[in-house]
Design brief:
The chain is of the alpha/beta class. Helices cover 45% and strands 6% of the residues. The protein has two domains: 33-68; 70-327, 3-Layer(aba) Sandwich (Rossmann fold). It has 14 helices and five strands.
Length: 348
């Protein structure tokens, strides 16, 4: 069982996969457990002391009832390689009144490895994920909203998430792998010098050059001992994008939307409207909120690799992810502010 990170004082679901769920066989039918009810009661006591609660929203009867038994019917999963704009995209989605955004929930982030490896039976994993997401909605009294999160590791378990949540929608953001790897290499997560630091990522994995669960079988030693820090970051980008594209290809167009980081940075209003349409957000308020959020971005980081990468790093990028970059339409020297290969269609 993966190690999970401690939650705030209110506490997350304590039922791990394999233990008996207190909310029924599917985790969807029964009223909350006594412990959950107590937590909700404490939240309500705090709420009634304030005229408005939770992002300025009114504390309505419908909101309270929905938060007693939150449903996770149509979650929104933002997926993408690390440093590809998932955080910016997720924070932008948080501006939509219909969504309850939760960034990267530590419990499910840690669980992704076991789900990917098949260590947990489907039903057990499904109950765990639903229980975590329901707790998150209940803790914020957001039972009347759609849950949204942006854990990059979800790229590897799209088939599971699509099956566990039949109404889920996926938003895949893709960034030029050279820019993403450059930004990733500026963090300590895959750096060899961090291997002995004892530091851990929020999902419980050790920082450093240790082979992650997504490294191809038989290539672990190459990843740990032979690859440079920058090449490991290129490796991470390739594996995340490959997995996401493969998983999304099996889904209906109404469930998947792909956008390019570069196009988002240069044409924020157009991309905001595309995404709003995909999510079914046709109201003016929602469209305006998403437009404003997207316009907070900038294009300064687009193409930064052209001046920042060394000759050796360029060769490593070409070796590790050149084929995928070409397949995605990223050509060396190509700058296409008006579109070209940087399409924002709903495919991969």
């Amino acid at each position: 069982m993966p190690q999970t990170t401690a939650y705030p004082t209110e506490g997350p679901p304590s039922t791990a996969p394999g233990a008996r769920a207190t909310e029924g066989s599917g985790g969807d039918r029964r009223l909350p457990s006594v412990t959950a009810a107590k937590r909700l009661a404490l939240t309500l006591l705090k709420a009634v002391k304030q005229p408005r609660y939770g992002g300025g929203r009114s504390l309505t009867a419908r909101r309270l009832l929905k938060s007693l038994r939150p449903e996770v019917q149509r979650p929104v999963f933002v997926i993408g390689a690390p440093r590809s704009g998932t955080s910016f995209l997720g924070q932008s989605l948080a501006a939509l009144p219909s969504l309850s955004y939760h960034a990267e929930p530590p419990a499910t982030k840690a669980a992704a490895r076991s789900v990917y490896r098949g260590d947990w039976p489907f039903e057990r994993a499904r109950r765990f994920y639903r229980r975590v997401y329901r707790w998150l909605l209940r803790a914020r009294l957001d039972g009347d909203r759609r849950l949204a999160e942006k854990t990059p590791r979800n790229a590897f378990i799209v088939p599971f998430l699509a099956r566990a949540f039949p109404g889920a929608q996926f938003v895949h953001i893709i960034r030029d792998g050279r820019d993403a790897a450059l930004s990733h290499s500026e963090k300590p997560w895959l750096a060899a010098e961090a291997s002995e630091s004892g530091g851990r990522e929020p999902g419980g994995h050790r920082m450093g050059a240790h082979a992650r669960f997504w490294v191809e079988a038989g290539r672990e030693a190459e990843f740990e001992d032979e690859a440079s820090d920058f090449r490991r970051c290129c490796w991470a980008w390739r594996r995340h994008v490959e997995a996401a594209r493969e998983g999304l290809a099996a889904l209906a167009p109404a469930r998947r939307h792909t956008l390019r980081y570069e196009r988002l940075a240069r044409r924020p209003r157009a991309e905001a409207d595309r995404l709003a349409g995909f999510l079914g957000e046709h109201g003016r308020r929602a469209q305006h909120a998403l437009r404003e959020a997207f316009e907070e971005g900038h294009a300064r980081s687009v193409g930064r690799w052209r001046t920042a990468l060394t000759a050796r790093q360029r060769r490593e990028a070409a070796h590790e992810m050149g084929a995928l970059l070409r397949d995605l339409g990223y050509e060396e020297g190509a700058e296409r502010p008006g579109g070209g290969p940087w399409t924002a269609d709903r495919g991969g």
